[in-house]
Amino acid sequence: MQPKTLALIDDDAEYSEFLTQHLQEQQGIAVSRFDDSNALLASPEAFSFDFYLVDLMLPGVNGVELIKILRRRTDAGVVVVSGRLGPEVFREVITAGADMYLVKPVQFEQVSLAIAAVQRRVAKPSAADAVWKLDRASGELVVPDGTRIQLSEADRQLLECFAAANGEPVTREALLNKLGREVPDGETDDGLSATIYRLRRRIERATPTLVPLQSKSRVGYVFRAPLQLI
């Protein structure tokens, strides 16, 4: 079993090029390459990949910190492929949230096997299948672990949109209309990203449960878990 999409974050251009070719041609995985961790984090699809291959010695945010950031936003598989050695490095990487650690030099076939092994785990039904609930009477979001989060009016409007979409992406235009805001022309900032960010942070501060709210490149946003109105 292999993921459909994968982000490869490694500043070794030659290694990345040949590994990408192997994964795409031999495994049928759509690979996006990033030679700088900040470039990944700036991408609209940063937290939407099915899998991540991460080096540790990176320009921008270092590999360990990048893993911690990914773990706050996604439960996708994360495999580290790095030349750094030592038990303390292994401990640091696994504690940060990586699923597996491979030491360079490593054969591409070994990388493929590691990806498949981790993907079997993350592809199983998990917290992403747990039901979130929007309590309109109390104005609270009920997390699957039982935590109740008080919402702002804008939060409630957004979550009603996501509940109605039933797991499908919701366009920026639809969300802005729900909020009663005008849809801007061109590149004008509509403030929606900031509103979504505040909602995510409100949830993240209240519960360790993974927040299934993700951006959808060139479309809008999607709530990747069942969300019921009660």
UniProtKB/TrEMBL annotation:
PROSITE patterns: OMPR_PHOB, RESPONSE_REGULATORY. Gene3D superfamilies: 3.40.50.2300, Winged helix-like DNA-binding domain superfamily/Winged helix DNA-binding domain (1.10.10.10). Residues 122-225 bind DNA. The keyword DNA repair does not apply. InterPro entries: CheY-like_superfamily (IPR011006), OmpR/PhoB-type_DNA-bd (IPR001867), Sig_transdc_resp-reg_C-effctor (IPR016032), Sig_transdc_resp-reg_receiver (IPR001789), WalR-like (IPR039420), WH-like_DNA-bd_sf (IPR036388). Residues 5-119 form the Response regulatory domain. The modification 4-aspartylphosphate is found at D55. Residues 122-225 form the OmpR/PhoB-type domain. CDD domains: REC, trans_reg_C. It holds the Pfam family Response_reg. GO terms for molecular function: DNA binding. It comes from Roseateles saccharophilus. This is DNA-binding response OmpR family regulator. Keywords: DNA-binding, Phosphoprotein, Transcription, Transcription regulation, Two-component regulatory system.
